[in-house]
Amino acid sequence: MKNYVEIIKTFTQEDFENNLVNLHIHTTFSDGKGDINLLTNQAKEKGYKYIAFCDHNTLDAYRKTDILQESMVIPGVEFDCWCGYVFLHLLGYGIDTNNEELLSYCAKTKRETEADWVRIFAKRHPKDLIKAIHNAGGIAVLAHPCCCWALNLDGFIKKLKGYGLDGVEVYYPYDRHRGIIKFHSRHSVSGIADKYGLIKTGGTDLHCSCFN
Fold first, then answer.
1. Which of 206, 212, 209, 196 has its CA nearest to residue 25?
2. What pLDDT, on the 0 to 100 scale, is given for residue 180?
3. Domain map of the chain by residue range?
4. Label partner for 40 (CA 20 to 30 A): which of 34, 83, 190, 206?
């Protein structure tokens, strides 16, 4: 079995910015519009080295397809959860997609994977999720941190680090609504990651049916 965690640690800023790696892609298994197989073929054509499908609150992309047979695909997931007053998205990478503990945190209905008004009522806690991600052999990463409603982002990430957070999503194009609902800069996030020794990841949070 591949050591996905060690692979992720080797990725550089250039890998993300030059479209060689994209670790944040959604499919029709949650609120994305793209077919998982078509997206994988597109990624191959565009020369990506690695990609990760991170559907909201579900591992069905891996459990209902044989996509992990593709050497470029790293298993991932994105969970909705709350930490105090802050709503956040927590990414899990390199996970065992059949891990029962992790599956217990997954959505029970399709609406829990695609409807914002349902997902925002999630009752998951990042401390529990991070533990489950680790027990499933993966790493836990804070998604698009610039969009977190945390008045003190440094303190917020430090708190998550205390729960076992492994990384933060730094290389991310803040466009669409993410560019409007934005409270911090990518530069500040990168500095906080360095301060706490966190892995830096990236992805486009793709929801459409094809790569740009």
1. 206
2. 46
3. 4-202
4. 190
Q: Fill in the amino acid letter for 65.
A: T
Strands 199-202 and 167-171: parallel
Cα gap 74→62, rounded to integer Å: 10
- Are 129 and 90 contacting, i.e. CB atoms less than 8 angstroms apart? yes
Q: What is the DSSP letter of 206?
A: B
Q: Assign a CATH topology to domain 4-202.
A: TIM Barrel (3.20.20)
Query: What per-residue confidence (pLDDT) applies to 179?
Result: 47
Look at phi and psi of residue 111 and say left if phi exceeds 0, alpha if psi is from -120 to 50, else beta: alpha
Contact 91, 129 (CB under 8 A): no
Of the candidates 53, 66, 74, 64, which has an alpha carbon nearest to the alpha carbon of residue 9? 74
Q: Could you tell me the mean pLDDT of each successive run of 10 residues in the chain, 212 residues long?
A: 90 96 97 97 97 98 97 98 94 98 97 90 96 98 89 94 97 61 72 96 94 82
pLDDT of residue 174: 59
